[in-house]
Amino acid sequence: MSMANEQGPPRRGHNRGTGQNHARQGKHADDAPHARTVRDVLEVLAVRPAQGLSRRQVRRRRKQYGANRLPRAAGPRLWQIAADQFKSVVVALLGGAAALAFAFSQTPEGTAIVAVLMVNGLIGFVGQWRAVRSMQALREQGQPRARVRRHGRESRVRTTTLVPGDIVVLDAGDAVPADLRLIEANHLRVDESTLTGESHPAAKRTEAVEADAPLAERSPMAYCGTTVTEGSGEGVVVATGRGTEVGRLTELAEGTESAPSPLQERLNRFGGRLGWIALGLAGLIAAAGYLSGQPLLLMVETAVALGVAAVPEGLPVATTIALARGMWLLARHNALARHLPAVETLGTTTVIFTDKTGTLTENRMTVRRIVTRAGEYRPEEDDAAAGAETDPALRRLLEVGVLCNNAAVEGDEKSVGDPMEVALLRAGSRFGLHRRGALETSPEVREVAFDPDVMMMATVHETDGAFRVAVKGAPHAVLEACETVAGTEESADAEPLDASQRRAWTDHAKTLAGEGLRLLAMAEKRTADPDAPPYEGLCLLGLVGLMDPPRQGVREAVAACRKAGIRPIMVTGDRAETAAVVADQVHLVADDDAGHVMEGREIGEGDDLSPEVRRRALRTSVFARLSPEQKFHLLGLYQEEGETAAMTGDGVNDAPALRKADIGVAMGRHGTDAAREAADIILKDDAFPTIVTAVREGRIIFANIRKSLMFMLCTNLAEILAVAAASLAGAPLPLRPLQILYLNVLTDVFPALALGVGKGSAGVMDRPPRGRGESVLTGQHWLAIGGWSVLLAACVLGGLAWALRGAGMETGLAVTVSFLTLGFSKLWFVFNLREPGSTLWRNDVVRNPWIWSAILWCGVLLVGAVYVPGLSAVLKTGQPGPAGWAAVLALSLVPLTAGQVLRAVQRLRSR
User: Fold this and answer.
1) What letter does residue 550 receive in the DSSP assignment?
2) Quick one: 366-547 is in which CATH superfamily?
3) Parallel, antiparallel, or unpaired: how do β-strands 351-354 and 366-372 relate?
4) Residues sharing a CB contact under 8 Å with residue 419, sequence separation 6 or more, in sequence order
5) What does the pLDDT look like over 281-329, one tens digit per residue?
6) Dist. CA 382–CA 391, nearest whole Å
7) Which of these, 632, 649, 672, 668, lies nearest to 70 by C-alpha position?
8) Range with the lowest mean pLDDT among 221-225, 326-330, 339-343, 699-703?
9) 817-843 core/surface letters (b: 16 or more CB in 10 A; e: else)
């Protein structure tokens, strides 16, 4: 044997677009083994099926190709998670403010800011670390093994040790451990739904196919990650690890950069603008105060404090807690968010691309229609017992479905075998027919396995001293083998199946197929010879229509998405007819594209679409026969149009698009590792309606963050305006630097946090989603901030003026009155942030228990600032007395009163 063969197959052909060495990928020599004969493939791989690879070949190839595993992205380290919590512009501004405070010997101010940053970092760290731990628990699995023939013996080895050239033996229920070129296939069928999107198992054979055959039509191949549902076979490993089809898709997913979430983009833009505004205002006010005669040191201290005031210290903490709370709530509803901003991003979604099989549907075939000469039955709806009693052909048909079957069902969930055969067993059980009992009455003596060329399967059973042949298969094939059709009464003889009846049955089959049903015809005959040809002289019993039904609650979830202004779009590798029917069942298709399905062949393979194709693709809601690359490009097309796109999926073929999407949503129970690794949110119960819960929570989170920001900016800007006006007027400053920081760090943060964890308004899902480019605060919000800030500042200056001139207080005590006026104004002002249209006592702010707790706690802190000796000395406050407290209460209630009047007027106008 040559050295090349000893080490492994020679490398010829091109790399599959990964730009990596074949040996590192575990990829074999030929890029199209499905187009080559078995003999050619075995020759290239230098292996004999009866012997398998020698120990020496295995060692050399393992060294050359590496382990048969897909490299997983290493989970983030603890220090990386911690560092991520400080990567925002607002945090950077606060860090700069702390540095300035320390530089000017303002140690209490600097320490307070650092404490805020640490609290924010700790909350974010705990939330993200919990998500990482949950992901690790989801993907923990045992070491899978494969049945392999090596050095003349069969043994079970870990799948990670497989190398190109290994001979793998397959049986029903086995997971395919690597990409195999089949060298033997005995009625072999493989479930490839996670790779191709096909909802029914693919029949396999060993004959070569065209080199450019689509993945779903490569019958001589069994791909890594798929599952054998029926039959047996053998295959030679032609690709491992990254060289497999799964590996290719994983590389495509890994090569896609994850963009920052919309919330991160908005907050970073806002923080950047806010930083320049803060610096400018602080500098101007310091200069103006100094020029008006204020001491230089005081104005420097004030400038630092106002710079801090301009930056909402509570924003990072409020945002982090709001997102963490959303993550925890979703976890309680079986949705795992891998990182905090993912929840809010889903709330901005305008388009959801959803897979069909396993996402909109149950990925479980069920019998939806049974047709006999006597009529049509719907097992999911009709009285099964009554139907079986009145139509003998129905009972005989169900018996054939139970007898001519290789599947097994245990309980309501556990099953083994072809999904169509499992569906027949479940249908029979509804009519009181069970396989075990049927086989006891009619023992099986012979099976003629399903043949793709004949398109039928038969079993022979001994019964009443004769033999009963039970047959099922494709309608056209069974009809051709039938000579009679069962009568409509128990005593009636079978009638000849003439040409007109054949046409009628054929037309009926076409009608059912047009409804998206997968069809089987059932037939039988009695014979004295168990070895008689099974497909001759049959008696037709009827037709069975099967379908993978929609998941419970999907229709309601789709309707909720549409009501919320979110457009759901189906993308599947399945047939157009099936996709159209499922879309109709869940009401996915909008009126403007009703009945239209766009297939992958209409889109093409590249991302350079013609204007007409682009227009059609942007109007279509159902896409069928799409390849993974086409899903990827379609997602990009919608993102180019400014859509915030979510993608749901469970298969390996979904991984690239899941990573490219603004928000990827994977199935946790039946999803693949590749899909879960690429996604942002994992549905642990695989329930599509959970997405609606996540969307609602995401919208609530953003609305809460916006309220928190409004609260902090209105009150912080009021501080700046009050100090600026006093500086320009040459009057005493209404707030001392440490008082400003005390208000911002304590009496700002707690109400902001309470607003951030509100339950949201009832109508949050009745509004369209925000635009991707919409700022955290719109122009209307800034107008409101300006107006409220002026009013709050006026109340503060009014308190200072009354204390100085009206009550004749000394400056320190007068500043205490203005300090308390602003503090309590902030607490009452929180009630102005209820939703427009809500009533005074029925709104999300009043009903938030955290708001009342925050007000109570902050009220205690404000009183303590005056009456606790050590604290009052640091803040330089005094006791204002009864008259001072009366002024504080009266002035602090002015903004609240104005706000409630405004909300009442808005409510009246909206009627």
Assistant:
1) B
2) Calcium-transporting ATPase, cytoplasmic domain N (3.40.1110.10)
3) unpaired
4) 191, 200, 201, 229, 364, 365, 548
5) 777 777 877 777 777 766 766 676 566 656 665 566 667 677 777 777 7
6) 13
7) 672
8) 339-343
9) bbbbbbbbbbbbbbbbbbbeebeeeeb
- The yes-or-no verdict on residue 495 having pLDDT over 80 is yes
Structure tokens at 775: 């700022």
With 0-12 / 13-18 / 19 or more C-beta atoms within 10 angstroms meaning exposed / middle / buried, residue 1 is: exposed
What does the mean pLDDT of the chain come to? 80
* Segments making up each domain of the chain, as ranges: 3-66+163-239, 264-321+698-910, 343-362+551-693, 366-547
Alpha carbon distance 303, 423 (integer Å): 75
Instruction: State the Cα–Cα distance between residues 105 and 99, nearest whole angstrom.
Output: 10
Instruction: State the Cα–Cα distance between residues 70 and 78, nearest whole angstrom.
Output: 24
Amino acid at 57: Q
Q: Does the pLDDT value for residue 652 go beyond 90?
A: no
The question of whether 355 is a catalytic residue gets the answer yes
Nearest to 501 by CA among 415, 645, 373: 373
Dmax over CA atoms of the chain, in Å, equals: 120
Say which residues have a Cβ less than 8 Å from residue 85's Cβ, sequence separation at least 6: 91, 120, 121, 124, 125, 128, 320
Residue 736 tokens read as 């001392």
Has domain 264-321+698-910 been given CATH number 3.50.50.60? Answer: no
Residue 2: is it exposed, middle or buried by C-beta count within 10 angstroms (0-12/13-18/19+)?
exposed
Which are the contacts of 897, defined by CB distance < 8 A and separation ≥ 6?
none
> According to CATH, what is the number of the domain 343-362+551-693?
3.40.50.1000
Catalytic residue, chosen from 166, 174, 179, 355, is 355
Asked if 132 and 677 touch (Cβ cutoff 8 Å), the reply is no
Q: At 556, is the secondary structure helix, strand, or coil?
A: helix
The class of domain 3-66+163-239 in CATH terms is mainly beta
Phi, psi values for residue 529, rounded to 5°: -115, 115
DSSP 6-70: HH-----S---SS-S-HHHHTB-S-S-GGGS-HHHHHHHHT--TTT-B-HHHHHHHHHHH--SSP
Q: How many helices (H) and strands (E) does the chain have?
A: 34, 26
